[in-house]
Task: inverse folding
């Protein structure tokens, strides 16, 4: 594959397990150009109709070169269950000069190794999913996204004490240290909040702030 044939926003996905497949199919749905590399013949045959796919062993840097991996500026390493394979694939991508490498890790020590050899972003799918669900089942949170440095964004039902009141009347930020940034009323489109935005009992609210403060706010009656 020649360099000029690869779109700037194309993504190389290595490994089509559950994680890699979810990444590749979602990117494909979003209209991104995807090239997947998978060494398992059965998996390769299963997904070859969906996006561009090459059956090859990505732990071999020559196989990556032949697949045109060096033409990509962004790659996702979906290999995770085999630490050795994950490290070899990531190291190969670093050696090929790929600028942005996202890699799956199954443990903190695995993630530290991947970062040390050059992965720009390390993802812990099982841990992140577990933490997200834990926050959701512990209160009235319906969705939970943890960003960085303890900052999070949640979707939740409003506590009774703010139902029927406008944002500036609730003084949520002053009292609880969190900020309501959006409201979704039943049958209405999402809207960013204004001081006069009134919170209904059936609304969904989007709230941002420190994770611990959000947890306290979500558990208020």
Result:
């Amino acid at each position: 594959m020649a360099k000029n044939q690869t779109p700037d926003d194309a993504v190389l996905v290595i490994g089509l397990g559950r994680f890699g497949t979810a990444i590749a199919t979602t990117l494909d749905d979003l209209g991104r150009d995807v090239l997947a590399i998978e060494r398992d013949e059965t998996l390769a045959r299963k997904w070859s109709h969906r996006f561009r796919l090459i059956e090859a062993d990505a732990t071999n840097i020559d196989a990556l070169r032949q697949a045109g991996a060096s033409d990509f500026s962004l790659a996702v390493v979906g290999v995770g269950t085999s630490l050795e394979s994950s490290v070899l694939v990531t190291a190969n991508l670093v050696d090929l000069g790929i600028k942005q490498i996202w890699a799956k890790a199954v443990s903190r020590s695995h993630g530290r190794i991947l970062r040390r050899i050059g992965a720009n972003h390390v993802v812990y799918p099982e841990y992140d999913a577990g933490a997200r669900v834990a926050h959701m089942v512990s209160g009235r949170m319906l969705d939970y996204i943890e960003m960085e440095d303890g900052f999070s964004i949640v979707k939740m039902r409003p506590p009774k004490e703010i139902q029927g009141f406008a944002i500036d009347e609730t003084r949520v930020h002053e009292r609880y240290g969190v900020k309501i940034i959006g409201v979704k009323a039943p049958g209405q489109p999402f809207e960013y909040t204004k001081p006069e935005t009134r919170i209904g009992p059936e609304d969904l609210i989007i709230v941002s702030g420190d994770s611990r403060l959000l947890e306290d706010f979500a558990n208020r009656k």
The mean pLDDT is 88. The first strand starts at residue 11 and ends at 14.
